[in-house]
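help with this record:
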Amino acid sequence: MSKLDEKVGKYLQVVKEKDVELDMDLLRKVTRACGPSIYNRDSETIAASQPGEMETIKRNYLVKKLGLSEGPKLDEGIDAVIEKYGRSDRQKFRAVIYYMLCKHFGREEVYKT
């Protein structure tokens, strides 16, 4: 089993725990797109309580990667995903948050190529 497969398996369990609709192919593609950050303990997770990190996710993932327009809907979407993931959950995995954001905004086609 490759290291990527191990990470996908780990994130799969989290997606199931959070009762999020599962698209295994999309989860794998989102995880792969995170690149080496998933192999670093610090960058594998996000700090949802830090406004700077949420702004970076909005700017670099939602706007640049998913092609969404800047606006209050992005903040609302991030807030909804963090709420569903669980604000008190200390380990919020980047790949799972990105997957949930992609599903929330209906932008799966970004990963279909």
